[in-house]
Every structure is written in structure tokens, then in C-alpha cells.
Write a structure and sequence with these properties.
The chain is mainly beta. The chain is 12% helix and 36% strand. It has an eight-stranded parallel sheet with strand order 27-26-25-24-23-30-29-28, covered by helices on one side. Strand 21 and strand 22 form a beta hairpin. The structure holds beta-D-galactopyranose (GAL).
Length: 728
């Protein structure tokens, strides 16, 4: 039988190129996912991670082979890995964003109790022969074996991969088809039986389908199982029902079984909009880079899932673009679970290399689609290098390959000029016109806007932060009014580290609606107010009297999904306000423009706190208060999770901010915050931390010992803060 085991533990790491003969003393113990160098969140050099490193692991077989084959599966290593075992080179893998595997079986030590030496030479330099490199790139790739590794035991005759697709789900003849590739490494021809339980809902097991199959020695053959009339519930954005299916190979007993999650849904980009299960859905989304402060791309499962949750539940978006490469399987799994649509694309940025480079890019198309085509959240494949020039032969090939590998999904390919040759199914366009251009081709999807046209920091002045939010507001408003535009994905969700050539020189591109710690700017509140169900009131102001020339914060915007809002200074009401339908007629929830209620300095002198109350169906549903005095009153610290896995890799975010008495961040309270940690974990990040924008985060990383972790923080003149979490 198959057995898949986590293989993240007990690696040795050296930040240099070492031969197999080097002693272990030159290495340090690490757990994967791992970044090849710890960095500050900014102000480092983009050459810092560019070196060759060596990973090694000594292991005895966790289970006896019993005639099985043993594979090692890497989810991702940046950017070129050479893998060897017991001195034998198994091969190279070029490209940091897609998985790769090696069959270890023939090179293992005969005696199972003997230790094997696995070694990975990892080149994390920006290799011009490997996408996305060859030219400059506006993001950092970082280095390390930064995703999970598994050991996979399989019988010589085993299931290599499965592609499950649901078809005609809205008709009275829905069906499921599963392509199953069976590989025969047994040395002789084999006859066996392939079984599929293709549709299950709870206890309700639909019929089992079986097929007698023959697989000649040394071959991998594709078989297709079909289930007519499956029982199912549709996967929707509000109720993303996932199905389990089990595919087995059975001779005398079960020789192999894989479980695949999939879903029933129909997604289509059309000339007049995007439909999910036949219903029009306006797409409103953001681009996501997979990198994090301090750890580069080496974020464990929990942080990957959290990003999906932030995009769906804090930013209220319904689509994310995995700019500009295939992202973590954990992130995509979470998108499936919570109903967040995904546009996934191949690695690359404004540059197409020579034939070998293009061959690698085609390999990326294949690896991406083969890995991810069972994810119901993915609705579009990006098969162009982001913002490259046209190349008819190359892009004809990427499109053809994508359609062969997955006939159920449309393709896109992100360009930045409208005259670009339209070889895909969807014209995916980065629209930096500061409006939404009239489409030349449909279906049309805007895949970036804003970005470099208006970088905005959490510590920029208030006007800039408001204008940043309004740019997103205006463009989304415009696209909501255009039937021939399927949606708009803004640049971008989170600030990200970048090369010297881009961003603000401190190695951050401040293009996010959230900062690099995934904490909100005002623009985040715009998105939240459009897509989140719970009532919210977000004042797009820091209520800093005197900052507006005329004095005070008149006018100001409130982002809210309430029907109306009421303004108070102290206990005194200054009237109720309606959403600004006039200027933002197409948005689900136009912002509220509050103006003309007061003259300069009134509130500054009276020192009355600001309060905005939101009403839904006539009832007060949400409110925000801002203190008039602007004095730092609290050092707030919180963790996203109260419990971690004591596995040496798990992490949660530790957010801290300096706030007024109501918990509003004070963007110019640049205090230095110092931390102490006690117990079964360590802090990842800068300590002490010179605060920026009034908010930031570190990560708490679990050690391998279970126990309690306590973090204490202090800042001058404020009461200290403390959080406790458990590691189990
Ligand atoms: C685009 C590019 C993105 C990012 C963005 C910044 O041209 O596709 O990766 O650099 O500009 O606005």
C-alpha cells in the first residue's frame, strides 16, 4: 500500500556549496520550510539570498520497503536543485515554483537500518536561464527548500496522477470523469482492476466504478473512469462544498489508493461577464505575491492558509491572481475550502528567453496544470509571461498545451498593451490607464491596476492614503458598471519585497492595500466594505485636527456596508449620511462622504471624540470611535492563533500596534517596541522593532517541544503587553 510521510524534519543546512564528504559539523539543524537566510523586513540587499547552499538529511527508512518504490517529492525549492543520494546524483530541477520528484529506490542502502545520505545542492542565484529571470523582475524570489517535502512509498504498479473533472453540472446529465495514470515499474506486464468512488456526499456513497486494466512493463497508461448521474451539491462562493473521491488499484487486495478533493461547479468567462454555476458574478480581487517579511517564501501551511482567509474574510474579495507564478498547495487548498476564485499563472516577468528557457516555461505550464487542475477554486490559467511582448509561436504552444492538459478551463495571458495578439480565451489585461479602458476583445478581465501609479505607505500622509483608497474605489466602481468587463483585480493585496530597481529603495514595493505584514491601509477598508458580510464602519481618516489645510478632517470618507451612518462628536449627533450613490453608482456599497458639518478646529478645541455609527435596517450595527487627543494609550499585541503545532516549523503572526484609547493605530507613533519570549518557541523578525505606520508584526515559531509560549512587549511610556499561546 501507498504511504506518504512528511519529510520536513531533521535536515542539515549550510549556506555554502559543500561536497558529500564534508562533515556534519559544518551544518546546522533546520526544519522545512526553510529560507536560506533570515532577513529584516526591508533595508537589505537583494543579493543577500543569492548564493549556493547545501541541504542534507541522514535517514533510515521510516518504513520497510516491502517491495515498494520510494519517491521523494519536493513541493518547491528556489531556484535550481541538484539532488543526490549516497553519492549518486539523481538529477537537477530548474525552477522554484513547481514540484519535482525523484525515485530513490535503486540507490538506497540495502540494509534498512543503515543511514542514507540525501543531499541537495541548491543554487538560489537569479539564474538567467530559468524563468522568471533573464532580466529585471519586480519582486524577490528568495532561496531555500521553502516548501514541504514528502517521502512517498508506492507499489511498483501505482497511480501516478489523477485528474477529476465535473461536466455539464447544470444540466440533467451531469457527470464526473477521472483520468487516472497508472505506472508500472514492476518489470512485467500487469493486469489489475481500477476502482473509483467518484462521488460521495457524507454517508451517501454513489456507485463504485471499476475497470479491468492492462499496463505493460515500464509504461504509464491513462485510463478514464466516468460516473453518470453523480450525487452532488454545487460548489459556490458562499457554500464551497468539496467532494472526496477515492481511486484504487485492487488485485488480491488494495495495492494503491489516492484521495482527491474536487467539486461540482461551472465557471465561464463570457463576453457579457463571468458566470459561476450560470449566475453572473462580478469579479473583484487583488494580486498576491507569496512572500512574507523576514522569511521570504518559506511560510508554513498555517500562514499560507491565513493569506487566503485574509483575502476572503478581511478583504472581501472573490478572486485572487497568484502573480506571477504557481503558489503553495496549502494556499490553493484553502481557496477551495472557503470559496475564493483563483487565476493562476506561470512564472515570468516582461521577458522571454531563448528556446531552452521557453522549454522550461512550457514545462512550467505542464507542472502547474498537472499539479492544480483538481482545484475548483482555479477558474483561469495564465499561460503568458506577465507583461511580455507577443510571441506567436511560443504562446500558441502554451495555449495548446494548457487546453490539452485541461479542456475544462479557459486560458488567459497577462499583457499590458491592448493591441496584443489575442491567442487566449480571455483577454487578461493590466490596465494602468487609471480608468477602465473600453475592451477591444471579450471576455475581458483586468488583472492589475493602480500599483506603481500610486505607491502608498502606512506612514504616508493621510491625503495620500485616502487617495490610494479612492483610486481602488473609482476603478472598481467603473468596472462594476461595465457588462463587457468580467472583473478587476487590483495591484495588489500586500506590500512585498523587491529589487533595487523597483519600489522605494528600501526593498519594499508599497503597492498593497495592506502592508507587508498583511495589516490594512485605508484601501483595504474599501475592499472589506464591498465583500464582507458582517457590518463594518471604517473611517478613512486618522482624525488629525489641522492636517487638511482648512483645518480638521472635513470632508472625510467612511467605508461601510451599512445602509446609512451617523456622525457624532462626543454625544452630539451631526446628522445621518447616505452612501455616495452619485459618484459611485455601481458599487455594492458606495463609500459615505461626510462634509460640511463643522468649521475648522471645532473638535480640536473641544476635544470631543469622533464616533461614526452604521445602521442596517434601521438598527445600529457597527461603529468606530477615534479619540480626539491623538495620544498613544495602548501597546496592543495579538496572535492570529492560540495554538501551534510543536513541529519546529509552525508559525503564527504576532501583530502589534500603538493605538489611541479606542484601538486605532497611530500612524506616526514610531516607538521602538521590545520583545521577550519564554517557552517553547522563538520570535522571527526584528527585535527590538522600530515601528512604522503604527503597526507591524513578527512571527512566533514553535519549537519541537510542546508547551506554553509567552511573549511580552514593551514600548516607552506605555503599559506592557503580553500574549500566551500553546504549542501541542
Ligand atoms: C506591473 C507588474 C507587476 C508590478 C506592477 C506594479 O507592471 O505586472 O508585477 O510590478 O506593475 O505596479
Amino acid at each position: 500500500m501507498r504511504s506518504v510521510l512528511a519529510f520536513n524534519d531533521d535536515w542539515l543546512y549550510a549556506p555554502e556549496d559543500l561536497p558529500a564528504s564534508a562533515g556534519d559539523a559544518q551544518f546546522t539543524a533546520v526544519t522545512l520550510p526553510h529560507t536560506n537566510i533570515d532577513l529584516p523586513h526591508r533595508n537589505f540587499d537583494n543579493f543577500d539570498y543569492q548564493f549556493i547552499s547545501t541541504y542534507r538529511k541522514r535517514f533510515t527508512l521510516p518504513e520497510p520497503l516491502n517491495g515498494r518504490r520510494l519517491y521523494i517529492d519536493f513541493d518547491g525549492a528556489m531556484i535550481s536543485a541538484t539532488v543526490s543520494i549516497n553519492g549518486r546524483v539523481l538529477g537537477d530541477h530548474d525552477g522554484g515554483y513547481v514540484p519535482f520528484s525523484f525515485d530513490l529506490t535503486d540507490y538506497l542502502r540495502d540494509d534498512v537500518s543503515e543511514a542514507n545520505l540525501l543531499q541537495v545542492r541548491l543554487d538560489s542565484t537569479e539564474r538567467p536561464d530559468i524563468p522568471p529571470y533573464g532580466n529585471v523582475v519586480d519582486y524577490l524570489t528568495f532561496g531555500g527548500i521553502y516548501r514541504d517535502v514528502h517521502l512517498r512509498y508506492v507499489e511498483p504498479v501505482h497511480i501516478e496522477k489523477v485528474f477529476v473533472r465535473t461536466l455539464d453540472v447544470l444540466t440533467d446529465k451531469p457527470r464526473v470523469e477521472a483520468d487516472v495514470w497508472v505506472k508500472n515499474q514492476s518489470g512485467s506486464d500487469v493486469t489489475t482492476t481500477l476502482f473509483g468512488n467518484l462521488s460521495w456526499i457524507g454517508e451517501n456513497v454513489a456507485s463504485e466504478i471499476s475497470k479491468n486494466i492492462e499496463v505493460p512493463a515500464g509504461e504509464t497508461i491513462k485510463f478514464t473512469l466516468v460516473e453518470e448521474q453523480p450525487k452532488f451539491e454545487l460548489w459556490t462562493l458562499d457554500n464551497p462544498v468539496l467532494q472526496d473521491c477515492y481511486i484504487s488499484l485492487i488485485q488480491q487486495h488494495v495495492d494503491d489508493q489516492v484521495e482527491v478533493k474536487y467539486a461540482f461547479r461551472e465557471a465561464a468567462f463570457k463576453a457579457d461577464g463571468f458566470t459561476l454555476n450560470g449566475e453572473h458574478v462580478k469579479l473583484i480581487g487583488l494580486d498576491r505575491h507569496q512572500t512574507y517579511p523576514y522569511i521570504g517564501g518559506a511560510a508554513p501551511e498555517r500562514l499560507q492558509r491565513k493569506d487566503a482567509d485574509i483575502l476572503k474574510h478581511e478583504l472581501g474579495t472573490n478572486i485572487v491572481r497568484t502573480s506571477h507564478y504557481p503558489q503553495s498547495p496549502h494556499f490553493l487548498d484553502r481557496c477551495d475550502e472557503i470559496g475564493l476564485l483563483v487565476f493562476e499563472e506561470i512564472p515570468g516577468w516582461q521577458f522571454i528567453g531563448d528556446n531552452d528557457w521557453q522549454a522550461l516555461s512550457l514545462r512550467d505550464v505542464e507542472s502547474m496544470i498537472t499539479r492544480d487542475r483538481n482545484h475548483p477554486s482555479i477558474v483561469l490559467w495564465g499561460v503568458r509571461i506577465n507583461e511580455s511582448w507577443d510571441d506567436e509561436a511560443f504562446y500558441t504552444a502554451t495555449n495548446k498545451l494548457a487546453h490539452e492538459l485541461d479542456p475544462t478551463r479557459q486560458t488567459g495571458g497577462v499583457r499590458f498593451f491592448q493591441e496584443s495578439q489575442f491567442l487566449e480565451d480571455v483577454f487578461t489585461f493590466n490596465d494602468f490607464s487609471n480608468t477602465i479602458v473600453e475592451p477591444l476583445h471579450t471576455p475581458h478581465l483586468v488583472t492589475e491596476f493602480s500599483g506603481h501609479m500610486f505607491p502608498t505607505k502606512t506612514f504616508d500622509n493621510e491625503e495620500r492614503q485616502v487617495e490610494h483608497a479612492l483610486r481602488h474605489t473609482r476603478i472598481q466602481n467603473q468596472q462594476f458598471g461595465m457588462r463587457n468587463v468580467t472583473g478587476a483585480i487590483g495591484w495588489c493585496a500586500f506590500d512585498y519585497n523587491t529589487h533595487l530597481n523597483f519600489g522605494s529603495g528600501d526593498r519594499i514595493c508599497y503597492h498593497g492595500v495592506m502592508d507587508i505584514f498583511r495589516l490594512p491601509k485605508f484601501a483595504a477598508y474599501f475592499y472589506e466594505s464591498q465583500g464582507v458580510e458582517t457590518p463594518v464602519v471604517r473611517i478613512a481618516s486618522f482624525f488629525t485636527p489641522g492636517d487638511r489645510g482648512v483645518g480638521g478632517i472635513d470632508p472625510f470618507y467612511v467605508f461601510s456596508n451599512c445602509d446609512e451612518v451617523e456622525l457624532f462628536f462626543g454625544d452630539e449627533s451631526y446628522g445621518r449620511y447616505q452612501p455616495d450613490h452619485e459618484n459611485f453608482p455601481n458599487l455594492p456599497h458606495p463609500p459615505f462622504l461626510i462634509s460640511g458639518f463643522a468649521h475648522a478646529n471645532m473638535w480640536a478645541e473641544q476635544r470631543r471624540d469622533l464616533r461614526v455609527v452604521g445602521y442596517k435596517d434601521g438598527q445600529a450595527a457597527a461603529e468606530q470611535m477615534i479619540a480626539a487627543d491623538g495620544v498613544p494609550k495602548q501597546l496592543i499585541m495579538r496572535v492570529d492563533d492560540a495554538e501551534l503545532h510543536a513541529d519546529g516549523a509552525d508559525m503564527t503572526r504576532l501583530v502589534f500596534m500603538i493605538t489611541d484609547k479606542y484601538g486605532n493605530r497611530l500612524p506616526y507613533a514610531n516607538l521602538v517596541v521590545s520583545f521577550e519570549i519564554e517557552g517553547a518557541g522563538e520570535l522571527i523578525g526584528e527585535n527590538p522593532f522600530a515601528l512604522v505606520g503604527g503597526q507591524a508584526a513578527l512571527y512566533v515559531k514553535a519549537s519541537k517541544q510542546a508547551g506554553t509560549i509567552t511573549v511580552r512587549a514593551s514600548a516607552p511610556r506605555l503599559p506592557a503587553a503580553e500574549v500566551t499561546l500553546k504549542s501541542v
